[in-house]
Structure formats: C-alpha cells, structure tokens
Amino acid sequence: MSLTSSSMLDLGTKAPNFELPDSISRSIYTLQQLKGDKGTVIMFISNHCPYVKHVNEEIVRFANDYRILGFSFIAISSNDVKAYPLDHPEEMFKTARQLNYPFPYLYDETQEVARAFQATCTPDFFVFDEALSLVYRGQLDDSRPKNGIPTSGRSMREALDALLNNRAVPKVQKPSMGCNIKWRTY
Q1: DSSP letter, residue 123
Q2: pTM of this prediction?
Q3: E-assigned strand segments in the chain
Q4: Domain limits of the chain?
Q5: Are 88 and 17 in contact (CB under 8 A)?
Q6: Phi, psi of 57 (to 5 degrees)
Q7: Which of 8, 55, 60, 123 is 20 to 30 A from 174, comparing alpha carbons?
Q8: 8 Å CB contact between 74 and 104
Q9: CA dist., res. 142 & res. 99, Å (int)
Q10: What architecture (CATH level 2) is domain 3-180?
Q11: What's the pLDDT tens digit per position in 86-130?
Q12: How far apart are CA 96 and CA 106, in angstroms?
C-alpha cells in the first residue's frame, strides 16, 4: 500500500458521464440514471484498503442519513483485480451485502472513469450539486486508522448540509488520504 492523497479536482468541474456495471444488481447504470435531486456523492473505494475499511460503517450511516433528503450515493471500484483479487466484482458483491451498502457499487474495469474524475486514492470523495457541478472533493472527515479520532463524516456532512440549505459549500477542503488506486500495468 502506498499512502496517497486526493488530486483535488477543480471545483466547478462537471461530473464526467459513465456507464458501469453494478456488482450488486448486475445492472448497467449511467450517471444520469443515478444522480440525485439535491446532489450526487461519488466515492472511489475498494475492498482491501484499510483506509476504506476504517470508514465503511460511517459511509453507510452517512448515505442512509442523506439519501432520504434527495442525495444519491455511488461507490466505484477501479482497482486492477488481477493484482488485487479482493477487489473483484464477486468480492465487491459480498462486501456490499455484508455491510448493507444502500448504494450501487460499480466496477470500473477499464479504469477510464477513475481517470476522468482524477481519482487517485481509496477512499476518494466527490460531491456534485443538482446540476452535476463539483462543489466538494476530499476527505470524509479527519479520522484515519490509528489516529484516535472517531469517524463522523463531518467534512462531507458540512458540504451536504450547505447544499441542502442553499449556502456556499466551504472552500477550504482537505484531501482524502488512503491507498493509491491500483492501476493496471498490462
């Protein structure tokens, strides 16, 4: 594992379109089909990364709290499954079921979607407004494995609360940190 930070895509960037298979339902989804009325949260995650494992329960809690308010949540795994078999779609399905993911868990086999979003690590979070314009990117909260800070989703919650209340999303945004995306080398 190589500790990597978010690339911090420019605010205002339009969400890149995609069409990806869901490891849970086995359906193919586009961004347009999954976007939320109030906003859309896109999370690049993986099964094997200890940084994702550390925040998984908070991601589920956070998604359950905000999806009823009009936000959609989309998880995407872009890792090379030949090198990291724990990130294979069958394993994604098992993880999603075990943790009761209330969102689709899409598989980006070509890694084109991760490149389009300039995702660099897992977890890596992106919040888009109702027009699919980027308003937040970076960390879930200040918690990291072994730093003693409990997970709360505070950074992301502040961003979504601002959208809900028609306020400006805080401009000071901290990058996420985690495992680097495992890019294919073949």
Answers
A1: S
A2: 0.95
A3: 3-5, 19-21, 28-30, 39-44, 71-77, 105-107, 121-122, 124-129, 134-138, 177-180
A4: 3-180
A5: no
A6: -65, -40
A7: 60
A8: yes
A9: 22
A10: 3-Layer(aba) Sandwich (3.40)
A11: 999 999 999 999 999 999 999 999 999 999 999 999 999 999 999
A12: 11
CA separation for the pair 3, 126 (Å, rounded): 19
Q: Is the peptide bond before 123 cis (omega within 30 degrees of 0)?
A: yes
Q: Is the separation of the CB atoms in 40 and 34 below 8 Å? A: yes
Per DSSP, the residues of 28-68 read EEEHHHH--SSEEEEEE--SS-HHHHHHHHHHHHHHHHHHT
Nearest of 114, 81, 108 to residue 185 by alpha carbon: 81
pLDDT in tens, 12-55: 999 999 999 999 999 999 999 999 999 999 999 999 999 999 99
* Joined tokens for residue 40: 């859309």
Q: Report the alpha-carbon distance of residue 79 to residue 72 in Å, rounded.
A: 23
